[in-house]
Design a protein that fits this description.
Oligomer: single chain
Shape: globular
Radius of gyration: 16 Å
Order of helices and strands: HEEEEEHEEEEEH
Largest sheet: 5 strands, antiparallel
Helix content: 10-25%
Number of strands: 10
Strand content: 25-35%
Length: 153
């Protein structure tokens, strides 16, 4: 029986990997299958913004930037700089996850040896889900998982 996630550190691949569209398509399909199982965690309040971790099997996959001014997420890479208020953040992200869609494309990140599949809500990309190079396993955000566990899962 294999673990649900690959090991934290892998041996770097020394030669260039041959990438095929079919591998990316399998990674995208894996995220589509997992998306209904994603759930919002407890908000993490930063001095100038709020992040809501997205969990799968009690591992954090990524974080959604929550904008308390609109009650909606902000696009990936643009956390809103506003008075942080976690009120309603978790419930809002739960609703957003039900409306979210997996985009039909993937990026390959050679240093991490993984696919990155974007997930969107309306016109915003709100998540980047990492998938193993062989497209068989989701790769959690280990640093975020540790942060979530420190604050209580």
């Amino acid at each position: 029986m294999s673990a649900p996630f690959p090991p934290i550190r892998r041996v770097p691949v020394k030669e260039s990997r041959v990438l095929k569209p079919e591998d990316a398509e399998r990674a995208i399909e894996l995220v589509r299958q997992a998306l209904p199982l994603f759930r919002a965690g407890d908000p993490i309040v930063h001095p100038d913004h709020v992040d809501v971790p997205v969990l799968y099997l009690d591992f954090a996959i990524d974080r959604v930037h929550y904008d308390p001014r609109t009650g909606n997420p902000s696009p990936k890479g643009a956390p809103p700089h506003a008075e942080p208020s976690p009120e309603g953040a978790r419930g809002s992200v739960e609703k957003v996850l039900k409306e979210a869609v997996v985009l039909n494309g993937a990026e390959f990140r050679e240093p991490e040896d993984c696919w990155v599949v974007p997930v969107a809500w309306k016109s915003f990309i709100i998540l980047h889900v990492r998938v193993s190079a062989d497209a068989k396993e989701l790769i959690p955000d280990y640093h975020l998982t540790e942060e979530v566990r420190r604050h209580g899962l």
